[in-house]
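Notebook B, p. 112. Complex prediction, attempt 2.
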Amino acid sequence: MHSRTVFFVSDGTGITAETFGNAILAQFEMKPRHVRLPFVDTVDKAHQAVRQINHTGDAEGKKPIVFTTLVNMEVLKVIQSGCKGMLLDMFGTFVRPLEQELGIKSHHRVGRFSDVSGSQEYSNRIEAINFSLAHDDGQSHSDLAGADVILVGVSRSGKTPTSLYLAMQCGLKTANYPLIPEDFERRQLPPALEPHRKKIFGLTIQPERLSKIRNERRPESRYASLENCRTEVSEAEAMMRRAGIRWLSTTTKSIEEIATTILQELWPERLRY
Amino acid sequence: MHSRTVFFVSDGTGITAETFGNAILAQFEMKPRHVRLPFVDTVDKAHQAVRQINHTGDAEGKKPIVFTTLVNMEVLKVIQSGCKGMLLDMFGTFVRPLEQELGIKSHHRVGRFSDVSGSQEYSNRIEAINFSLAHDDGQSHSDLAGADVILVGVSRSGKTPTSLYLAMQCGLKTANYPLIPEDFERRQLPPALEPHRKKIFGLTIQPERLSKIRNERRPESRYASLENCRTEVSEAEAMMRRAGIRWLSTTTKSIEEIATTILQELWPERLRY
């Protein structure tokens, strides 16, 4: 049961407003309804947003919570003066003290993504995505020298989502390679990876969780059996320990947490730029 | 030249702090140095962060700007009392007025990603990523009924990054299909897609930009020539118009803007949940 609605109003995508607003709301034991209103970039659309917010408030009998990241002052003024919700103006709250500290005026330009499509950073992201797709699941050994990160781990330990996240959000060309029985028999990393050991990062996972994930794909298979998962995980961990590569357990971690840890270990300069 | 450093301090990944802080900083004509300090979740680490921030401030002779999304009060207090930077406590600023409005206390739990890895939403994201990988670039016609979105467009119009973004960030199973000369000759969408017309969204792009992108991959080719790009784009747009499918131009848009527009058009309920 939702008893209250939270709006995220932005003249851009509203992703920043929603990400940040959700992090704040996560501090409360409540399940509000979420409504993202993106691209509210004209006075007309602002009036429309106000109507929608006030209508919701009347229907629920409770003030809607309204997070805004509006930089267009005309639009913001319409919301400020007409909206009966509780307004949390995320930009204004911090921009004004910053103007004082920095001694410069903000320029009220819309959207952190605007016109990024022509930028170098943006084409790096796209190039990294293409690289990671071509090097998913050990598909290619070509140009491993060009990789920024090489992930290894048993099948279904989280390599593919992590690779794509590192490519898409951090612009890192990320290859990933499964560790398979042949590697365990040789007791060595796949030979093609040896020269690139410094870029290798390992992912491991609790056997119980791995077995559950694999069972969803191939129920009742030997591949998914707890016994086999235990063997594979223990072989893989022993190998990573011998090879002296860094690794972490993905069992209770989100892609974002895994990616941030990999940045700290392999690319700390991506956290300082 | 950087003249001032901005820190993003979090007891989680710091992604929220950095995303939001950057959106605010984008309002100013300045290029500060960025330092993200993730996983600051103990008093010891807080003291370490304080030393780093103050050292930077002394070296630069300017107050560092410090965005924090700390929920651990002990950690926050160390930063508040010891740090000589300009502290922007993003959570505290909004959490306190929200406690008043909601009439409940916040629980100071760390991290919007904590322990999400076992949740249904999280496994939906992973499943969507796998689906999108298997249905990238028209690789498979199987289970198109299971797709949430089907993107079409000429080669290099932005389909792959958009598909992966929709899967990873929105949990939407997104297939993508290139429109190729055979389709233009038949003057019809690829036949396998016909039954799923309602889920199709088209991407187009300015021929000049397309030619530039293609030239980076295959310089001097007919494929990349401006003339060929013009023909393909005009055929593709004519076909999408005839088929009555919705489409947009990706030329100056970021993945995030494209994805948000697709949500508005095909999955508005994903913006309201």
